[in-house]
Amino acid sequence: MIPHFTDHAANERTYLAWVRTAISVMAFGFLLERFDIFLLYAAKATTQVPAGLHTKASQWLGLSLLLVGALMIVGATGRFYRNRRAIEAEGSSMYGDSWAARGMALLLVLMAIFLTMYVARQIAALS
After folding, report:
1. CA-to-CA dists, residue 112 to 15, 32, 37, 106, 119, angstroms
2. Of 64, 56, 27, 24, which is closest to residue 39 (Cα–Cα)?
3. Are the C-beta atoms of residues 68 and 29 closer than 8 Å to each other?
4. How many helices and strands in the chain, by DSSP H and E?
5. Alpha-carbon dihedral angle through residues 41, 36, 122, 127, given to the nearest 10 degrees
6. SS3 127
7. Would you tell me how many other CB atoms lie within 10 Å of the CB of residue 76?
8. DSSP character for 12?
9. Which of 17, 30, 59, 79 has the least CB density, counted as fewest CB within 10 Å?
10. CA nearest 18: which of 88, 96, 104?
């Protein structure tokens, strides 16, 4: 019997959930990075070329989401091993939230706000 098996299994499930989330963020970043193709196609479908159409922001935001996803995997791996050592330790330890998790959450919220404004502006430029 493995000591603290349920705790280790929960730690591994949490790690895998973080990895799945990071892969989703990276996939969304790749989709967003390719959003400019949709915008250029939509612009060519209209009879007039919109003056306010900018595609560089979606490329930079998509690349930054790819980077955030990679950082999420690195952070989740570190958290997994830290929790593994805490489970194996004989004494008790404090469980606390890290500043990195809060910072990444804030970064994702800021990216979401920017993306909302960006898409609204691009739709207005195509209208």
Report:
1. 24, 12, 20, 10, 10
2. 56
3. yes
4. 4, 0
5. 0
6. coil
7. 19
8. H
9. 17
10. 104
Here the tokens at position 122 are 């691009």
Q: How far is CA 43 from the centre of its chain?
A: 29
Q: How far apart are CA 91 and CA 77, in angstroms?
A: 23
Chain position carrying tokens 């990895």: 19
| Cα–Cα dist 88/14, whole Å | 17
Domain residue spans of the chain: 5-126
Residue among 61, 76, 57 nearest 29 (CA): 61
- Provide the whole-model pTM: 0.71
Report the distance separating Cα 13 and Cα 9, nearest Å. Answer: 6
